């Protein structure tokens, strides 16, 4: 096993030159959000090959599910996500690992307006760009 620095490692990921890799799925080519849609889109949409779709998965039927999602009703979105999750489980040689989750942990003793389960206007993590700026515009003294 050879330990690579970031440059060659990233290039190899983008070009599909690996047998096994450990990588994050966030970044500028994915949009984070309160639904599995956002993470799965980054991982499975064929337009993201070489950006966040490192496994190089390509399927016109899966891409069509992503295309239908935004205009669908909430109940239809749930059905679409279930279909996409089935694709992830049945077809992708991929092991999702959670290492950075959004805990919605805030000190509300003097500041209010944070994202909540009932008001998911932004990704709650303080490191999530551009959501961190959106959160700041909602905060107010309590």
List keywords for this structure.
two-stranded antiparallel sheet; 2 strands; globular; 142 residues; 2 domains; mainly alpha
Write the layout of secondary structure elements.
Blueprint: H1 6-15, H2 36-44, H3 60-69, H4 74-91, E1 111-112, H5 131-138, E2 140-141
Antiparallel strand pairs: 1-2
Question: What's this model, at a glance?
Answer:
The chain has 142 residues and is an all-alpha fold.
Query: Separation of termini?
Result: 54 Å
Helices, by number, come to: 5
Category from helices, strands and their pairing:
mainly alpha
Strand content: under 5%
**Main beta sheet:** 2 strands, antiparallel
List SSEs in N-to-C order. HHHHEHE
- Tell me roughly what share of residues is in helical segments: 25-40%
The whole-number mean of residue pLDDT values reads: 83
* Domains (count): 2
Per DSSP E runs of 2 or more residues, the count of β-strands stands at 2
> Ranges with pLDDT <50 over ≥5 residues?
none
Walk across the major sheet and give the strand order.
1-2
Rg, nearest Å: 18 Å
Give the overall silhouette: globular
How would you explain this protein's 3D organization?
The protein is about 40% helix and about 5% strand. By secondary structure, it is an all-alpha fold. The chain has 2 domains: about 5-90, no CATH class; about 110-140, no CATH class. Helix 2 packs across helix 4 and helix 3 packs antiparallel against helix 4. The longest helix is centred in the middle third of the chain and has 18 residues, at about 75-90. The chain is globular, with a radius of gyration of 18 Å.
């Amino acid at each position: 096993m050879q330990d690579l620095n970031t440059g060659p490692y990233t290039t190899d990921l983008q070009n599909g030159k690996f047998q096994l890799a450990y990588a994050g799925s966030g970044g500028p080519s994915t949009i984070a959000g309160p639904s599995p849609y956002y993470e799965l889109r980054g991982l499975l949409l064929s337009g993201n090959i070489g950006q966040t779709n490192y496994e190089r998965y390509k399927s016109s039927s899966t891409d069509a599910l992503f295309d239908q999602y935004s205009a669908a009703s909430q109940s239809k979105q749930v059905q679409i996500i279930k279909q996409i999750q089935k694709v992830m489980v049945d077809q992708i040689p991929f092991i999702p690992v959670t290492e950075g989750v959004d805990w919605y942990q805030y000190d509300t003793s003097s500041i209010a307006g944070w994202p909540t389960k009932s008001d998911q206007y932004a990704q709650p993590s303080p490191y999530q760009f551009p959501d961190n700026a959106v959160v700041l515009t909602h905060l107010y003294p309590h």
